[in-house]
Amino acid sequence: MKKRIMAAALVSLCGVLGLSFATPSLAQKKDETIAGIEKYREMLGDDNPAELYEMRGEAAWKKPAGPNNVSLEKCDLGLGAGIVKGAYAQTPRYFEDAGRVMDIESRIAWCMMTVQGISEADMRKRPFGSADKPSLMEDLVTYVVTASKGFKIAPPNTHPQEKAAFELGQSIFHVRAGPYDFSCATCHGQDGKRIRLQELPNLTKAADNQRAYIGWPAYRVSTSQVHSMQWRINDCFRQQRLPEPKYMSESVNALITYMAVMATGAEYKGPALKR
Fold first, then answer.
1. Which residues fall within 8 angstroms of residue 18, CB to CB, at 6 or more apart?
2. Architecture of domain 44-274 in this structure
């Protein structure tokens, strides 16, 4: 009891004298926590479980499959049939044979349908897996994107449809909708925003887009699996309480196009390790 009274008196005296205890501020604590998370990612960086997805993806890429019983080695990801290295860094892009702008995941799916003969309905059944049962698409995407590590992000953005996709993505980014009247810009349109300890990049700025884009696809420790950029965008729609977009939809491709173009010039370092 005496100790509590003495402590209270000391606090009161400090207040009168204009003194303060050397305790860290809330902002300082958050910064220290974020630094700790980054250190954790750095420690695990050399042992990223995404490597397992990459190995499975490479095997699946080279293995004959589908009704046509052929591999994906004839798939043209934009740099010529069978060329995987550096292809991800130059998407999304307009593909003349498909007549539309595609991100890398949509293009892989298109090749599975046109080269291997897999139906569109089957492609849409299970694009996103779970920790105990990854999807084939996640494996393939991880293999393809890893082959662009060290390349500069450089989507063409010269074809009229590429420019239109960028403008559509930019517009969708700012559209407010749903029961909470949210838009992508609600969380990602200003500096200094965060959810709990998670910093939110300002995706209206090139520098923040670069930092955000080069980390996806990513292995998330919290879910114990690799997630693609298509999954990331779909999950943002879910958090806005909007209906989940149709897999490989034009709107999702447009948003990815917007981010990729804004991230032009950044060196791809993924798949990253996320919390």
1. none
2. Orthogonal Bundle (1.10)
Please state, for a pLDDT cut of 90, what percent of the chain lies above it: 52
Residues constituting the chain: 275
Q: What is the pLDDT of residues 96-130, one digit of tens each?
A: 999 999 999 999 999 999 999 999 999 888 888 88
CA 251 to each of CA 8, 62, 197: distance values in angstroms, whole numbers, following the listed order: 60, 31, 29
Rounded Cα gap, residues 175 and 185, in angstroms: 8
Of these residues, 14, 111, 184, 236, which one is catalytic?
A: 236
Beta carbons of 172 and 254 less than 8 angstroms apart: yes
For residues 156 and 260, the answer to whether their CB atoms sit within 8 Å is no
Domain ranges of the chain: 44-274
236 a catalytic residue: yes
Global pTM value = 0.82
